[in-house]
Amino acid sequence: MIAELGHAALWLAAALAALQMAAGFLAVRAGEGSEIARLVRPSAVVQAALASIAFAMLLWLFAITDLSVKLVAANSHSLKPLVFKLSGAWGNHEGSMLLWVTVMSLSGGLIALAEKRLPERTMQATLAAQGLVSLGFYAFLILSSNPFERLPVPAPEGLGLNPLLQDLGLAFHPPTLYMGYVGLSVAFSFAVGALLTRQVTPDFASAMRPWVLGAWVFLTLGIVAGSYWAYYELGWGGYWFWDPVENASLMPWLAATALLHSTSVLASRDALRVWTIMLGVVAFSMSMVGTFLVRSGILTSVHAFAVDPERGSFILVLLGLFIGGALLLFALRANTISEGQRFTATSREGALVFNNVMLSAILAIVLLGTLYPLLTEAFDVRVSVGPPYFNPVSAIFAVPMLVVMAVGPLLRWRQDRLERIRPELALFAALVLVSLIFFGLVTGVAILPLLGLALGIGLGVASLLPLRGRNLKRVPLATWGMIVAHFGIAVALIGMASESAFSKERLAAVEAGQSTQVGPWTVTLSEVMPVAGPNWTAIEGRLSASYDGGEPVILTPQARRFWAPPQETTESALSTRWNGQLYAVIGDRTPDGRWQLRLWWKPLVTLIWYGGLLVALGGALALVGRVIADIRRRRVARRIIERRAEMEAMA
Amino acid sequence: MSWRVWLPLFLFAGFLGLAAYQLTQPKDDFVGSGMIGEALPYFDLPAATEGASGAATTDFKDGTPRLLNIWASWCLPCIAEAPQLERLKEAGVPIVGIAIRDRPEDVARFLAQHGNPYTRIARDDLSEVQLAIGSSGVPETFVIDGRGIIRYQHLGDIRESDVPTLLAELEKAR
Lengths: 651, 174
Prior knowledge:
The complex is a heterodimer. By secondary structure, chain A is an alpha+beta fold. Chain A contains 17 helices and 10 strands. Chain A has helices spanning 2-30, 40-63, 70-75, 82-88, 93-114, 120-144, 168-197, 202-233, 244-269, 273-296, 309-333, 348-377, 387-407, 422-442, 447-462, 477-502, 607-650; strands at residues 504-510, 515-518, 521-532, 536-547, 553-555, 558-563, 566-571, 573-577, 580-589, 595-603. In chain A, the strands form 2 sheets. In chain A, strands 2, 3, 4, 5, 6 and 7 form a 6-stranded antiparallel sheet that branches. By secondary structure, chain B is an alpha/beta fold. Chain B is built from 5 helices and 7 strands, in the order H-E-E-E-H-E-H-E-H-E-E-H. Chain B has helices at 7-24, 76-90, 104-114, 128-132, 162-172; strands at 44-45, 55-56, 66-71, 95-100, 120-124, 140-144, 150-155. In chain B, the strands form 2 sheets. Chain B has a 5-stranded mixed sheet. Chain B has a two-stranded antiparallel sheet with strand order 1-2. In chain B, helix 2 (76-90) links the parallel strand 3 and strand 4 (95-100). The chains are: A alpha+beta, B alpha/beta.
């Protein structure tokens, strides 16, 4: 019954998406004040409610482990802890698509309720586009990935969730990324709406900006969480592998970063109109392309995800329809939209445009590297593209981008001279040069980490410079957001460079009682014993590790064996200090009774994720700042209208 | 400006075409050996169990095509392919076995239970030869021609339906 309720809610939501789309487009054609326009906003709101009901039903099915439902039987198990039963609801293809459309319809409902700034016709067009996108995903769910499908005979027990996914970090990584993707779909709908009605105005940019900011914050969080999960759960000690699936999440982030900045230019300076629209389309198409690459199994990746060519073809058709349609519309309309206000190269707009181009270049490089194996396979050549390509080639564009990023926020809008900010420029250049010389000559660091360290230090200081000579209490929240986010980039950059320049690794086979050294750490294997959890057993090593002869800390890395489904995982153990992390993994027993230990000392590695969190925090601050300013502006506008009405009444 | 606005659409169409083409292609997840068409790398391995003879590269250069079977007593699919190897032996095919990371007593027990189709059985305790000929797992079977050149690789256990293919490949290698 629960499954049928969910299924019915899904069909009804799809019907409302169709209504929202049809009514929206008809209203746009009919022009101002048509009757049918009144249907659009309510249908978006009701659709959001229905999609939420469908998702709630799926959560319920997973919570009670209803094994007559195929999806539950295939992905859950009655002996799993409740939190992983629930996260199992989106730890699979069908459930995660349902989560996606639910978040999408919720944001559609939110725009329908709250967004009153844009001309009503543009809003109708935006909601119509949103309806079209939702309808595509509903069709995908209902026709080829129904999460509520029943089994003819209920299963006696579920197959269980992949143990690697039974982890809190990963329980929340996919929903975060989906919120990011969905935010970009809203930006896409706004872009299509603005193209349809040719209303590419600063108002349009400020209506779209919170969505882009929100999407960007969630994408950042999703990538940070995913990267940390890969780091400690997979036990390989790396945080980024340039795997197609990782690239699939990085590409929308790069596009969203560019979009975020060009939206700011459009909102405050009325420039870059066409470019912003283009990025709005590109950002969403990157999240669709990512989804396609991940779910069609067209590329070989460590994230084997519901590989199914039929689903792949479905997503490809949706991709062609949405993105192809939007690009066609763009090609037809772009020439009728003027570029907007002019500015000189040495200005804040100039710096933003430069970095937009650099970000787009990096995006193109990542896209090319990700798709290259697909291209060569058409000619029967198999290749895999990895760090030797991505790292240096993206650095070519990242280095000038970081330099401009340090300088850009110091420049004025529209027109400026570099002479005006000479002291700041000199400080930045001096910091970079001194770090280059110090790390290059004294410690002999390789070129890429060296550049990373130097630019990270320079940017870290430069990103705080816009605050100089200002009353800190009067700096707007959005400006704080920019400063925190840029500072976060510097912090993450220093973490990455330090990890690759100064990490120490030790692979040793030790007996209980023996010690080994890694960097400044002395690690002793005290004992090895079996332990058990709710659905696994493990071999656990007890290590006592002492930093530089200090008080020892106890680490307990495990080699776990799950029984539903049968699979082994390594649980690494970490000891975090302010200046880095000790990372320990226990491996097999050697024939002579010793245990394999893999140890890393990674100085400052945690800065990577702290930096990422700062970037997300910066985005969140900017978002809150913008929304508060918006609400205030709306209140003022309302008061002016009331005052005017009073005056008229008095007269 | 006029023609450039069409550029994204054309690039996207190119991507769509490529992706659609690749989706229709059968997906091949196997990692084939890069050594096909190359000569066997040099090795000289001892016998895997008492009474068997070891194997060396020179054994493959007498003009007769052979099968080189990578297996192990601890490998379950190897049990499944044992009857097929037996049939190939009955068809007169010389089969050289290489037991990967195995113990002599386990090898002897396996042969006693599932039959011995091999003319030679060598032991490869460190997977050296296995890696050198580009095999990524057990079982795998290679067709080696009479001059010691690797001609064909079969991944996984040999099913009934694979026997004619292997016989045909051996015929080609003659």
